[in-house]
């Protein structure tokens, strides 16, 4: 091979091209073969950046403080080395039975998700590893019996952990691993005192994992309580190229939110599954009833529903049974940007796990009394939604942090996604009171903070160029549908949904397992039937399509405006008969024969 000569006619040295670092496989991480079989069943080919870095460090016994975006595989990053360590300890002749790992999570939904992931990874381990979820609603005696056999991994909230520690049901003498998942959220839920008590119950040398999508200054408290010289993993830069979320905003009037969402779903402007975030529970049902007018099915997800129903909605959504979820994240949007106020739990032990089936009392006037909601609920954090293509912020959250967690539901695990947010300018606020919401007053200030925070991460929030003039033909239909969604209808839909979900929960679970053909009764996107539906609204005529575009669709035939076309004629006949009776004349519904009714003497 000829080499290039320099100015002194001396051959230059050949410089090698930079070699890209190779991504290790799960086999290279030295995990137990039984766990590798579970990973293969999950169809994972290579570890994510957080898994590739955290697993070797965890196997060395290091304490880890990891920040990685939502959907980057943080759960597997701490579960796999813990399960590998437990399998190694059990193969030792000197092994004594004990609870080896405690995983603290802020919500029941996240606890169920972590438990399911652990069971999936250990599917080929036989009975070697047992995982228990303490957040399930069950009798204390049943829970004590399950803990008496020393499960290898325990998943619980801090409050539930303290309850079982105080009763003596949970013993942490042989604990070797502690995980606090969504650590910043655990702190914001007011578990400070519980965490301090847990730290006192732990022996020295327990390996600690603190993982979260965001790491704030408040985590210094957790580091001081549980960690000893932790390794800090911040993987935002490495994960920038593994996927992304295209972010757009649309500035519109308050009633135009409903016009836009109607056009988006009716004209199929977005493809795939979508999560629509709204500001409160009432707004959830108002939007659901509005979409039902056009034949658009959706299901709701909020803290008022029983936990079993929430988990069932998420599971069915991940299985592509539903395409649209209307969700609230009222615990995520509490508080203003930068105030740093923590939510306080009033009753630590008794109400920490709360009643799953909580109701919000509603007075005859429609106002809500102060009521308890499930404080272990947060839809935009922790819960694993799969293959979500679009996040639609129907109502903007009150902070940039909540916005980040919302859009983290899409663009997960290297995929791409879209986030669209509706913004109410100040000059259009409270111009349409029936559709107004108080939080919309600060949309422009929150948007400025969102743009600033996203620019720091190298992301752009772009305006969505949507020509509202092309939707003028839809305004009458939007107003017609919105007119029927009254405050009373929203209240009735909310009450009916809650009652139905309570009936569908654990009481009927066994029945539907034995009678799968009746499983349709468990669907969460059924119509509420509290608003009169108008069949013609479910179809879009050609003349309403933007730009005069012809709609290619099957012939749906004539759609009448009334249920009975003859009903109008009957009403007219009845009115005519009443008028004639008032004049004292007898009216026959049959057509009179003029020859038979002729009177030669005249009327007199």
From TrEMBL:
An annotated GO cellular component: nucleolus
Residues of the Helicase C-terminal domain: 244-470
Boundaries of every DEAD-box RNA helicase Q domain copy: 24-52
Alphabetized SUPFAM superfamilies for the sequence: P-loop containing nucleoside triphosphate hydrolases
Residues spanning the signal sequence: none
Family to which this protein belongs: Belongs to the DEAD box helicase family. DDX56/DBP9 subfamily.
Protein's recorded name: RNA helicase
The organism of origin for this protein: Coniosporium apollinis (strain CBS 100218) (Rock-inhabiting black yeast)
């Amino acid at each position: 091979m000829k080499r290039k000569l320099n100015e002194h006619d001396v051959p230059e040295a050949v410089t090698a091209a930079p070699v890209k670092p190779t991504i290790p496989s799960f086999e290279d991480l030295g995990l137990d073969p039984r766990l590798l079989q579970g990973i293969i069943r999950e169809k994972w080919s290579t570890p994510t950046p957080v898994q590739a870095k955290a697993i070797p460090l965890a196997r060395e016994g290091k304490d880890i403080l990891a920040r990685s975006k939502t959907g980057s595989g943080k759960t597997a990053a701490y579960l796999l080395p813990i399960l590998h360590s437990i399998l190694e300890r059990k193969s030792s002749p000197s092994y004594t039975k004990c609870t080896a790992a405690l995983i603290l999570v802020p919500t029941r939904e996240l606890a169920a998700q972590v438990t399911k992931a652990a069971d999936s990874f250990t599917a080929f381990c036989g009975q070697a590893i047992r995982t228990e979820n303490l957040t399930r609603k069950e009798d204390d005696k049943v829970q004590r019996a399950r803990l008496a056999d020393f499960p290898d991994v325990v998943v619980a909230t801090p409050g539930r952990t303290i309850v079982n520690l105080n009763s003596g049901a949970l013993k942490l003498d042989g604990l070797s691993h502690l995980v606090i998942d969504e650590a910043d959220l655990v702190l914001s839920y007011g578990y400070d005192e519980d965490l301090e008590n847990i730290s006192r119950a732990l022996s020295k040398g327990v390996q600690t994992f603190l993982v979260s999508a965001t790491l704030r200054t408040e985590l210094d408290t957790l580091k001081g309580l549980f960690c000893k010289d932790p390794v800090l993993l911040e993987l935002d830069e490495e994960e920038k190229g593994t996927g992304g979320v295209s972010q757009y905003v649309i500035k519109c009037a308050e009633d135009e939110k409903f016009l836009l969402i109607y056009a988006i779903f009716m004209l199929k402007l977005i493809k795939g599954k979508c999560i629509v975030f709204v500001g409160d529970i009432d707004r959830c049902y108002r939007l659901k009833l509005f979409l039902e007018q056009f034949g658009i099915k959706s299901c709701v997800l909020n803290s008022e529903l029983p936990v079993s129903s929430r988990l069932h909605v998420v599971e069915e959504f991940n299985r592509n049974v539903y395409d649209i979820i209307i969700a609230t994240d009222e615990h995520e949007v509490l508080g203003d940007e930068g105030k740093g106020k923590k939510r306080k739990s009033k009753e630590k032990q008794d109400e920490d796990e709360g009643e799953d089936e909580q109701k919000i009392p509603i007075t005859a006037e429609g106002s809500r009394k102060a009521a308890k909601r499930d404080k272990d609920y947060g839809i935009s954090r922790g819960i694993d939604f799969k293959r979500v293509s679009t996040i639609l912020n129907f109502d903007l959250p009150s902070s940039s942090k909540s916005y980040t967690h919302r859009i983290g539901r899409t663009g997960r695990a290297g995929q791409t996604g879209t986030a669209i947010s509706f913004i109410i300018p100040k000059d259009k606020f409270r111009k349409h009171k029936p559709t107004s919401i108080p939080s919309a007053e600060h949309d422009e200030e929150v948007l400025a903070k969102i743009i600033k925070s996203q620019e720091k991460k190298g992301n752009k929030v772009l305006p969505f160029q949507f020509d509202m003039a092309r939707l003028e033909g839809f305004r009458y239909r939007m107003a017609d549908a919105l007119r029927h969604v009254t405050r009373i209808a929203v209240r009735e839909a909310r009450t009916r949904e809650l009652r139905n979900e309570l009936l569908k929960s654990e009481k009927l679970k066994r029945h539907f397992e034995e009678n799968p053909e009746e499983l349709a009764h468990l669907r969460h996107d059924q119509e509420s039937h509290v608003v009169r539906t108008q069949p013609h609204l479910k179809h879009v005529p050609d003349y309403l399509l933007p730009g005069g575009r012809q709609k290619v669709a099957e012939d749906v035939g004539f759609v009448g405006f009334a249920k009975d076309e003859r009903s109008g004629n009957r009403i007219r006949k009845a009115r005519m008969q009443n008028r004639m009776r008032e004049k004292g004349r007898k009216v026959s519904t049959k057509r009179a024969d003029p020859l038979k009714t002729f009177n030669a003497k005249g009327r007199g």
